[in-house]
Amino acid sequence: MNTVPAVIVFDVNETLSDLAPLTTRFAEVGAAGFLAQLWFTALLRDGFALAASGDNAPFGLIGADVLRGLLSDVTVEPRLNRSVDDAVTHVMAGLAELGLHADVAAGVRSLKFAGFRLVTLSNGPTALADTMFSTAGIRSEFEALLTVEDAPAWKPARSAYEHAAAACGARLEDMLLVAVHPWDIHGAARAGLHTAWLNRTGALYPSYFEAPDYTVSSLPELALRFRAEG
To answer: pTM for this structure?
Structure first.
């Protein structure tokens, strides 16, 4: 990468937020904890399908409907300890109580101290990010919290990244996306952004996606990489 970006754009779900506690929410309603990951994957699938067809729908609406179908159709209802609707309400409420991954606060502060403009671009609502960041004491580090609910389509559609660029008054090529999802990295790269893949688990990057400019295991490591280049 030849130039250091002016604006760092963070994905939120799983990149900054730790979704692991949702497994407890599923268990609390009598469902298997592993369904949390299945639910989130199905939520993304349907959001992507809407984007591919030129449509858009709120994260919460898709999430609740997918969850209702999952709890009704995956033969878990006989083990539920409450009605399906009450179970959906309980699980969805857990999103507002999620925290950040352990490396996030220090990494965000380091990147802000280094002079970068920091924003988020989430397929979810900004209220969830606002709550998490405020609780962690890093809300003031972010210039803006953006959501694709204000864009034509979800990421990884190009229009989502263009929405972020317009909101920041920046060129796409002056921005860098940080995400744990290779599909997000690919979409951002194809739109013209620089990219950093946050690979906390040592996973293999899919060969069919555009390769990231940076691969790091934590946000503080990304700050160190920029410092070394500067």
So the answer is: 0.94
